Amino acid sequence: MQVKTFTGFSTQEVLKKIKATLGDNAVILNTTTEMKNGRKFYQVMAAVDNSLEKEEERLLEGMEGESKRDREERWYIEWNHFKDQIYSILKDTMDLPYLSSRQRTAIRHLEMEGVGEDFIVNLLALLRRNGASFMDILGRMVPVVPWGEEPLQGRCHIFVGPHGVGKTSIILKLALKYRREHPDSRICLVNVDNYQAKGKMFLRHYAELSDFSYREVEGLKEGAVLLGEVGRFDMIFVDTPGLPKGMDFDMWWENSPIKLMEGARIHLVLSPVYSLQQIQHYLNKFQNESLSSLVWTKLDEACIYGSILYSAFKTQLPISLFSYGATLKNSLAVASRPLLWNLIFKHRLPSFH
Ligand SMILES: Nc1nc2c(ncn2[C@@H]2O[C@H](COP(=O)(O)OP(=O)(O)OP(=O)(O)O)[C@@H](O)[C@H]2O)c(=O)[nH]1
Ligand SMILES: [Mg+2]
């Protein structure tokens, strides 16, 4: 804090001096007056707290020193805002007499579900160009492949996604489902989540309870052992960690000991409880050409579901599974178009079927 006393024959004169010396953020601490040569003479004690300015400076310096990654992330968010505004203007200027009133209602509903402006603009453009029905066009924009069907078939399935989205839960639900459908099958649960002891214990505990094989892979050595064992199992489910800030899936995958598992299907687990902006961030973070499908969890906790359509449309990855409960029983559904449309247009969870 810098404190100074200023003097003058009028308050205006003194305030001017204070402003010139201490700036706009100065505060008056004390004022006294006395008579000098028959005129009122003012003495004003003022102060300014420089620590705030210094903090601001530090922050600005920090921004200048921000990493290329952070800058790119900021640029990406700004670009997305900008794009949304362009789409919104585009949509408003589109001539829409070719839409029936039912189609208009459906589009309004999709907007409220939060499918995103570019989804709506693309839908409108396709409706204008094609004579096909509304649901056909929507279906073509959003790929769905039920879990277990080609091209998602395979012996090894890896689940990736943000912290706490439900990766471990999905694996346990799928392993139990597979066991029910194939009672003599040999199932192996693999943990590559070497960041969190809690998730590891959870998976190992259930593997023991349900008589599944269990492996932990921390480095290349365990990875190579697992590769040698693949043929021993009918189904292998691999649990991975949520990735820390600054690490993209690409980077993690390149150094991952399970990268060499041939024909493994990688599924990105997301939830509609995240905002569309958060979903866009995760789609960016986990973007990888090896991804096979999108798995959606916590449907029971979400209030809108537009991000499910948005993500499938943007990535053209099929939706494969739905999870709609925290319990392991009766909370998993293989994705299908009827389930998806019921969820989007009627907010009906798969459990109602
Ligand atoms: N309501 C609801 N809760 C769920 C669902 N799936 C998972 N959960 C809960 O979400 C929490 C996190 O689930 P996990 O399976 O541990 O998530 P994860 O992605 O493995 O988490 P990390 O390993 O910490 O990254 C747990 O309390 C689960 O019971 C779901 O579909 N609905
Ligand atoms: Mg986990």
Q: Give me the CATH architecture of the largest domain, please.
A: 3-Layer(aba) Sandwich
First-residue to last-residue Cα separation = 68 Å
- CA gyration radius, whole angstroms: 30 Å
Give the overall silhouette: extended
What ligand molecules are bound, each kind once? guanosine-5'-triphosphate, magnesium ion
At CATH level 3, the topology of the largest domain is Rossmann fold
Strand arrangement within the widest β-sheet reads: 6-5-7-4-8-9-10-11
Strand content range: 15-25%
What is the CATH superfamily of the largest domain? Answer: P-loop containing nucleotide triphosphate hydrolases
**SSE string, helix = H, strand = E?**
EHEEHHHHHEHEHEHEHEHEHEEH
As residue ranges, the low-confidence spans are: none
Note the main sheet: 8 strands, mixed
How helical, in percent, are the residues? 40-55%
Count of domains: 3
Written account of the structure:
Helix 11 runs parallel beside helix 12. It contains 13 helices and eleven strands. The relative contact order is 0.11. The longest helix has 26 residues, at 68-93. It folds into three domains: 2-53, Dodecin subunit-like, CATH 3.30.1660; 69-141, no CATH class; 156-352, P-loop containing nucleotide triphosphate hydrolases (Rossmann fold, 3-Layer(aba) Sandwich). 46% of the residues lie in helices and 19% in strands. The protein is of the alpha/beta class. The strands form two sheets. An eight-stranded mixed beta sheet has the order 6-5-7-4-8-9-10-11, sandwiched between helices. A three-stranded antiparallel beta sheet has the order 1-3-2, with helices on one face. The structure holds guanosine-5'-triphosphate and magnesium ion. Magnesium ion binds at residues 167-168, 193, 199, 239.
